[in-house]
Amino acid sequence: MDSYWYYESDEPHFLESCSLCRKTLSLNSDIFMYRGDMAFCSQECRQEQIESDELKAKTWKKTSLSSRSSLRKSSDSKDSVAGKTVRTETLVVA
Predict the structure, then answer these.
(1) Residue 35 forms part of a structural domain
(2) Looking at the domain assignment, is residue 65 inside a domain?
(3) Pick the residue with more confidence: 12 or 44?
(4) Residue 8 domain flag
C-alpha cells in the first residue's frame, strides 16, 4: 500500500492527495504542508494555494470595509431617537 493512512471512511485522508491538483501522494515523495491540514505534491501547488488564499483575504477585507462604510453613512442620517444618537454597528469575528 503506497498511501499514508488507511481507515474506513468515504473521504480520503488529507495526506493521500494534493489539496490543489488531487495528485496521489505516496510514501516516497515529499509533501508540502500549509495551514497544518493541507498537503501538496509540490512547492508550486502550495504557493498557488497561498496566493489564492491571500487574494480571497484581500477581497474579503475590501468588501467588508466598503459595506461597513456604506452602512455607517446610511445609519448616521437616521439613527436618532428623541434627540439621542443610537449606534448600530456590525461586529465581524473571523
Answers:
(1) yes
(2) no
(3) 44
(4) no
* Lookup: cell for 21: 491538483
Q: Which triple of cell numbers denotes residue 64?
A: 467588508
Phi, psi angle pair for 55, to nearest 5°: -65, -40
How far is the C-alpha of 1 from the C-alpha of 7, rounded, in Å? 13
Q: Give residue-wise pLDDT tens across range 62-80.
A: 887 777 666 666 555 555 5
Has residue 76 been placed in a domain?
no
Q: Is the pTM of this model over 0.70?
A: no
pLDDT digits (tens, 9 = 90+) for 13-31: 788 999 999 999 988 989 9
Q: Which of 8, 28, 4 is nearest to 16 (CA)?
A: 4
As for how many domains the chain has, the answer is 1
Q: Radius of gyration (Cα) for the chain, nearest Å?
A: 23
Instruction: Give the domain range for residue 31.
Output: 14-60
Cβ distance 13 to 24 under 8 Å?
Answer: no
